[in-house]
# Entry
Amino acid sequence: MSGDIEVVGVFSSDVECAHAIEQLHRTPIRGFHTFAPFPSEHMAEATDEVRGWGRSPVRKFVLAGGITGAITALVMTVGTSWEWNINTGGRPIASITPYIVIIFEMMILFGVLGAVTSFFVKSGLPSFESSTGYRTRFGADRFGLVVKVAESDGGKIEALMRDAGAEEVVREAA
Amino acid sequence: MAAAVDQSNHQLTYLDVDRTAQRVMAPAGLKYWLWVAFCAFLVAVGGAFWTRQIYEGLGVTGYGQPTLWAVYITDFVFWVGIAHSGTLISAVLFLFRTRWRTAVYRCAETMTVFAVLTAGLFPIVHLGRPWFFYWLCPYPNERYLQPDFRSPLTWDFFAISTYLTTSTLFLSMGLIPDIANQRDISTGWRKKFYTVLACGWQGTDRQWRNFSMAYLLLAGFATPLVLSVHSVVSWDFATMQTPGMHSTIFAPYFVAGAIFSGCAMVLTLIIPMRKMLHIEDLVTIWHLDSLAKVILLTSLVITYSYSTETFLVWYTQDPIEMMTFHQRFFGLQGYLFGGMVLCNCLIPLLLFSPSIRTNTIWLFIISIFVNIGMWLERFVLIAGSLSTATIPTQWKFYVPKITEVMITIASFGWFLMNFSLFTKFLPIVSMTELKEGVGWLRKSARNTYPYRKAA
# Structure
C-alpha cells in the first residue's frame, strides 16, 4: 500500500479554488485545508459543504462570556450594596436601574474577552509551526488548496486541481 | 512613485495593495523622526507642567470655586468623543457592509485606541493627588467606603475601561492577518517582531472561519458599546442639578457630537497622511467624500440639538436656566459660544457643495474648524455652566492658566506621537479588507476621476 502524500494547488482566484474544493466531494481524500489572503465567501461556502461544518463555535463562547459578565456585574453591584448596607436618603439599598449600566458594560466586556479567547483557542493560535503546504504567496495574492491523499490517488487530485484552474500543482510528502 | 497604481486602467491588484502598504511601512526618513521628536518634546513640556502641578498642587491651575471642572474634564470628553468615530467606522459600518470604510477604518480604529488612552489620562491629571488614582476604581477597601454603583462616575469607570479593552482587542485582532503578511516579506528584526505579533497566523480555512465570526461578534458588541459610552459620559453632567447641564437630551446629543468630531479628526489625520505616505491610490477622494457626508449629517444633528436644548430652556421658563443660557449667549464667554456655533453649525454647511467635499484642502480646513468647535462646545458646557451656576454672587469666570494650556497641547503631542509611530511599524490600512473589496476599490478609483477633474 502506498503512503500518503499532499497535493498543493496554487490558484490565482478564490472562485477557482472554491470550484476545486467542491470537486473534492467525488474523491477519496483523507483531509484538506486551504489558505487565503482574505476571508473568501466562495471558499468558505465550498469548505463548509465538503466538511459539513456548521457555524463557528466562537459564538457559543461569546454567549457564555456575555451571560457570565452580566451575572458577575449583578452579583458584584447588588452583593456589595447589601454587604455595606448603607441607607442613603431612603433609596433602596440595591437600586437595579442604575446598576443596569454596569451590568451592560460587563456583559460586553466578558463577551468580547470570550470572542477573542475562543478565536485564539479554536484557531490553534498562537502556533509557531508552519502548516504543511504553506507558501508566503498565500498571504499576499494567491489561494492554496492542500489535499492529503494516498499516493496512488495523487494523480486524480492533480488533474482535478488543474481542471479547476490551478496555476501550479505540486506533490509533497505528507 | 515605485508602486503607484495605474488608475487609468482601474486594474488594482492584490499585490498593488500589499506594495502600497509596505511602502508606507518602509524605514522612515529624517523628516518623520523630526516630527516624532517634536511630538515627544510637547509631551515632555506637558509632563514638566504636570510635575509642577503635582508638586505645588492644583492652585497652579485656574481652578477655583465654583469652577472645579474645567479644561481637564473638557479634554477628557473631547478625546473620548474623538475615539467614537473609530468605532463607528470600524464596527457600525462593518455591520452595514459599507464598502468605503475599508480604506479608512484602520486609521480610525488606531485613532480610537490612542484617543481613549489620551482621554484616560485626564481624570488622573485632574486629581490633586494623582498617586491615589486607584481610588477611582470601585473595590472593597480598608477605608470602609462603599463603591457607589449608582454614581455616573463609577459608570464611567466601567464604560471607559470596557471601551478601551474592546477597541484595543478589535484593532489587534484585525491586525493579525496583515501582520502575518508583513512577517512573510520582512527581514531582520522586523521579521522577528512580526512573527511574534502574528501568533502563527497563516490564513487557513479554520482560522478565517473563527476570525470572521469573532470579528462580526466584536463589531456587534462594539456598536451598542459606542452608543453607551458617550451616553454614560454625558450622564456625568446630565445627572447633576447644575443649570446648563441638567438635560435629558445629552445622551444622543453627545453621541452625535462624538461621531461629528471623530470623523473630523479622521480627516485631519488622513488627508496629510495620504499625501505624505503616498497612499492616494488606496484612500481616494471617494472615501474622503463619504466621510465628509457623515460630518455634514452629524453637523445637522448637532445644530438641531443646540436648537432643541435652547428651545426647552425657553419653553420651561426656568429663571435659573434662562439666566445661564443668557450668560452663555451674551455673557463674557459669549464669544466662545459664537465660535462653537460658527465651527460646528455654519462652516460644515459648506460640505453641501460636492466641489468642496472633493477638495482635500477645503476638507482639511473644515475638519480643523470642527475640532476646534467641538472642543469649545465641551468647554462652554462644562466650564461655562459651572462658572455661572445657581447663585450669582458665586459667579466667577474661569480662565485657564499656562499649566492647563500646556498639558492640553501635550495631549495632542502624545496622541500624534503614538499615531505616527503606529503608521511606521504596523499596517495603517487594512490589506485584508482592501483585497476583499478590491472591486469596490476599482470603483472608487473610477469615481475619483471626475472628482479630480472637477477639483
